[in-house]
Amino acid sequence: MSLSIRGYAAQSATTPVAPHTFERRDPRPDDVVIDILYCGVCHSDLHQARNEWHNSLYPMVPGHEIIGRVSAVGAEVGKFKVGDMVGVGCMVDSCQHCSSCAQGLEQYCLEGASWTYNGTDRRDGRPTFGGYSERIVVSDRFVVTISDKLDPKSAAPLLCAGITTWSPLRHWKVGKGSKVAVIGLGGLGHMGLKFAKALGADVTLFTRSPGKESEARRLGADHVVLSTDPAQMKAVAGRFDFILDTVPNPHDLNPYLATLVLDGVHCLVGQLQPLDPPVSAGAVISGRRTITGSAIGGIAETQEMLDFCAEHGISSDIEMIDIQDINQAYERMLESDVRYRFVIDLASLDKPA
User: Which pTM was predicted?
Assistant: First the structure.
């Protein structure tokens, strides 16, 4: 017997996100049923709702930064109990047997991870619907524990913005003595600054906008470089071990490559489009530099990140909104008018649309 769920959905690429009722599956023995309290708003929600990546399935219920309380568990679930505060990120399943999954890297599942929304349930073929809704049903393997040391509201964006920046910093072993630069001060960038600082790195923010120094320092930056100023860029030539590039749109990588040390790494986590303008191969070859990318993190790594945040008092800077304000939030995101992540209070589903 399916569950009838209230939520908000995009019905097409050109219509607003609006109230929508849909069905979720009856819980399986390994499922956790979660009453959603909060859901972060990711820039990818906007991309997908408006079909900007040309793979959107409608109707679409966005949202993959989900925090809620367990309301029921299947007979085979032992890790969670009713009343637990839990989270669900970008994935709700994977094949569980490929080489990536065996390493706890479900995000790189060779058969393709099952995404929290705009995806397909690999067991029954039904579409997946996300966190702009009152309840979700998820396999216990893809549910994470939220410590009572974390504010659940500001913990929501950790499940995408947080893990997207944490995973590459950990993979490339950023720590004490590392010189790290973060490009962009948005939902991803502000988490990159916090994590790099907490891991012990010397941290620089690259920004195109003057006047961000005090804010950047509050978030963990030791230095701020205006990337449009040739003198400031020349002053940091050959300085950084690792650059975390959070910019979501095509931009010129060449000026930043010159700031890397020998064997330095420039890691893309925000841009999915082709690189434009072209990258100078000479800048890569002459310094044995690496241009790479990283996608979210596996479930174990996500739990590690959440535990680190609880231990070090790290959370996202958020602005709470009602679900009825989601379309205005999308427009504000396009204007970079949020510091630094919108989070939906799902109790607002009970308010008139």
Answer: 0.95
CB count, 10 Å around CB of 16? 13
What the block records as the tokens of 145 is 């524990």
- The conformation of residue 283, written as its DSSP 8-state character, comes to H
Which residue is listed with tokens 């499940």?
Answer: 159
Give the number of C-alpha atoms closer than 13 A to the C-alpha of residue 172, restricted to the C-beta side: 26
What is d(CA 332, CA 31) in angstroms, rounded to the nearest whole number?
A: 36
Question: Counting beta carbons within 10 angstroms of the beta carbon of residue 271, is it exposed (0 to 12), middle (13 to 18) or buried (19 or more)?
Answer: middle
pLDDT digit string (tens) for 6-34? 999 999 999 999 999 999 999 999 999 99
Spatial distance between the Cα atoms of 120 and 129, rounded to a whole number of angstroms: 9
Pairwise CA distance, residues 28 & 152, whole Å: 26
With residue 268 as reference, give the H or E element that holds it: strand 260-268
Give me 142's structure tokens: 């893809």
